[in-house]
Specification:
5-stranded antiparallel beta sheet; single chain; 27 strands; alpha+beta
Length: 726
């Protein structure tokens, strides 16, 4: 916590300066102090093998010291004579930063120089100081400007009183929902009672799995945090490593005596060796020769029965045994903060579930006519959770490919549920043959329903304003049809290297008020083979220092640098690494699609008048083509019968010209017949002798699948035949 009062202000600066005046060496010595540590009441004997308090009744602890620094940040005077400061090598002429852990040197040095330059105090920073033996002391450190600027600084050092430390620790531990950061904060707070502190969590807690109702006899522990940060002996378990099974079993047995979790103290190295037994377990759990005694405190989640989430261990030298009051303080700190660990576990579980959903929605592969690559990069771990960005691509039954990208408002399970529902709904509607604008109309209605207080998910979450962009790629005509609901425009790179956003008219997001709703537009663009299309979410292009147009321009430049022969997945990673901010505030999503299309010789299209001779003319054209494609006779006969039935139905039930299209794709053949009718063909339950529905019955029997899609001028009935070639 930073505080910067001016030298002329009252209270904070004056009170601290006045208190320090008694401890700055002058004509006399420093005030005498009794044994270090607060004079707490003795324990009630609930924990085993601990040392009773020996402080004299009514004794007071000296916890205040002071150090003067010159302008080069070297110690010029000091008073750290109280026993609590024993081991701090505060020698006149030595740089003050030598008392700090290496990782804290840059931050504290910057604070010291800031006070020198501005003359404004920096008050009450929780800080660790290194003793000569490698152990550390937690203090409250304040930096005060000297009365005369040329005299440098005065640094006050207050050894944290236990009650104050408990409060400060609980506040610090509850600031993050990341399981690793929460465990690290707990370990740093525990370090005030020893030389080394470690937090080992049940593997299920680490991964966010459920902990209630599990068998507690067998526990697998993983080291989640360890302080201080230093080079440890070979074989010692460090963060991220699993404890050996023997070590996990011994710790679990130690803290679950009589089936009730409790703290234990192993006071010296001989006892440690006797309890741990084998040398492998000793190397894994004992941090060094000097740290011989350990207090093990279980992280217990209250409930019927109580659940052990893990074990916290505090090690220190055997000549400083744990007192009753210290053990009670350790238990109180862990008891106060274990719910933060459980909250982090629940957040980890939610984060894992949402991330799994995100990954599942990502496109897997493209196909023969299009190449797909996608990147999903969640925001930093200290965010509120995985966001609602989603991207998907999938082949449609009629040979086209759908590319969909969306951004659902919010984070967490609410956003994930909406994201999954919209994604699956969009896929189902597109597969049923609806146009992009029609699909967005349905998604718009869905978002409005989800926000409805009576029928929606109104428990504190709203998806209003979510965005979506749908692109349908036709590999025969080499065109894309695009509709957007408030989403940023895709970027297209043409084969000649020209890159830029597609000109899409802005539209409100999904679920907009009725007065703001407008019909969704369908935009059509040519995409010759070799074109590259980029769909993305705003997290990739938003930068506080740039306008959104400049961000899209940077994306266009990055995508235009992708070579036609570059592996597309590697290219997508390069684009994201070049554009995504170092510290993301939002999820980053990118989909790259390289258009390939069908070769000209693999497709054929005929336009026939809607007359009685249309089926015969279609059979003649198709027969000649299939013979050039060396189709087997049995397959050729089936395809001719299929085309004849589809064209006959088109002539019978529709008006206007009939379009016949054949597409050769791999080992399959796609047959399409388009007309100007708007009726939906339906397969009846009648038999072959029934007049109505006979044509569709034949279609159903001859094909692997068939369906209908709607166009601006009517409909297209498509059917797929496999194993068509010889």
């Amino acid at each position: 916590m930073d505080s910067t009062p001016s030298p002329s202000s009252s209270s904070p600066f004056d009170l601290v300066s006045s208190a320090l005046g008694r401890y700055i060496p002058g004509g006399g010595g420093a005030a005498a102090a009794s044994d270090a540590g607060p004079a707490d009441e003795e324990g009630d004997g609930t924990a085993g093998r601990r040392v009773p308090d020996k402080a004299a009744v009514g004794g007071q602890d000296q916890i205040l010291g002071a150090v003067n620094l010159d302008r080069d940040l070297r110690i010029s005077r000091c008073n750290l004579d109280a026993p609590v400061f024993a081991g701090l090598d505060a020698v006149v002429g030595r740089p003050f930063v030598d008392l700090l852990p290496p990782g804290d040197v840059p931050t504290v040095t910057r604070r010291l120089r800031q006070v020198l330059e501005t003359g404004e105090a920096h008050v009450a920073r929780i800080q660790r100081l290194r003793r000569g033996d490698g152990s550390e002391l937690v203090v409250s450190l304040s930096i005060l400007p000297a009365a005369a600027p040329q005299e440098g600084l005065t640094v006050s050092v207050i050894a944290m009183a236990r009650r104050l430390h408990l409060y400060a620790a609980e506040t610090a531990i509850g600031t993050s929902l990341d399981i690793g950061e929460t465990a690290q904060s707990l370990a740093e707070s525990l370090l005030a009672w020893g030389d080394v502190a470690a937090v080992d969590l049940d593997f299920a807690v680490w991964t966010g799995e459920g902990v209630a109702g599990r068998e507690q006899g067998r526990i697998r522990l993983r080291r989640a945090a360890l302080v201080p940060d230093r080079a440890w002996p070979e074989g010692y378990v460090t963060p991220g490593d699993d404890l050996p099974s023997d070590a996990s079993r011994l710790l679990a047995q130690a803290v679950r005596r009589d089936d009730a979790p409790q703290a234990i103290v192993i006071p010296d190295r001989e006892a440690v060796e006797r309890v741990l037994g084998g040398p492998r377990v000793m190397r894994a759990l004992v941090p060094g020769d000097r740290s011989a005694g350990v207090a093990c405190i279980p992280l217990v989640l209250d409930g019927p029965p109580p659940v052990v989430l893990g074990v916290a261990e505090v090690w220190r030298r055997a000549d400083l045994p744990f007192r009753d009051s210290e053990l009670f303080d350790l238990q109180e700190l862990v008891a106060r903060t274990v719910h933060h660990v459980d909250l982090a576990r629940q957040h980890q579980r939610e984060h894992t579930q949402v991330l799994a959903l995100q990954r599942r929605l990502l496109p897997r592969t493209g196909g023969d006519t299009i190449e797909i690559a996608s990147i999903y990069q969640p925001a930093t771990p200290d965010s509120a959770g995985v966001g609602g960005d989603w991207v998907n691509s999938f082949p449609l039954p009629d040979g086209r490919t759908a590319l969909v990208v969306g951004d659902v408002v919010g984070h967490g399970l609410g956003a994930a549920a909406t994201m999954g529902q919209l994604s699956m709904e969009a896929r189902a509607l597109l597969s049923a043959g609806l146009a992009p604008d029609e699909v967005l109309e349905h998604l718009d209605e869905t978002v409005s329903l989800l926000d409805d207080a009576e029928s929606g998910l109104a428990a504190g979450y709203s998806a209003l304003g979510s965005t979506c962009c749908i692109v349908l790629y036709d590999p025969v005509s080499h065109h894309v049809a695009l509709s957007s609901a408030g989403h940023l425009p895709p970027v297209l790179v043409s084969p000649d290297g020209h890159a830029g956003p597609l000109p899409v008219r802005p539209h409100p997001g999904l679920g907009a008020e009725f007065a703001l709703r407008e019909p969704f537009d369908v935009h059509t663009f040519g995409v010759p083979p070799g074109s590259l299309l980029a769909l993305y979410t705003d997290g990739l292009v938003e930068d506080p220092a740039l306008s959104i147009d400049e961000g899209i321009g940077r994306l266009a430049d990055a995508v235009s640098s992708v070579h036609p022969w570059d592996p597309l997945q590697q290219a997508a990673r390069r684009v994201v690494s070049a554009l995504a901010p170092a510290r993301q505030r939002d999820d980053v999503t990118l989909l790259l699609a390289r258009m390939i299309g069908y070769r000209k010789g693999d497709t054929a299209t005929w336009r026939l008048p809607a007359r009685d001779d249309a089926p015969a003319r279609a059979r003649a054209q198709v027969s000649a083509l299939l013979r050039r494609w060396h189709t087997r006779d049995d397959t050729l006969d089936n395809v001719l019968l299929l085309i004849s039935e589809l064209v006959t139905n088109a002539v019978r039930f529709a008006t206007g010209p009939v379009t016949v299209r054949l597409i050769r794709a791999g080992h399959g053949l796609l047959c399409e017949v388009g007309d100007t009718g708007n009726g939906r063909p339906r397969l009846s339950r009648g038999g072959l002798l029934d007049d109505g529905g006979r044509g569709l019955y034949v279609v159903h029997r001859l094909t692997t699948r068939w369906g209908v899609r709607w166009t601006d001028t009517g409909k297209v009935v498509w059917a797929e035949v496999e194993r068509w070639g010889g």
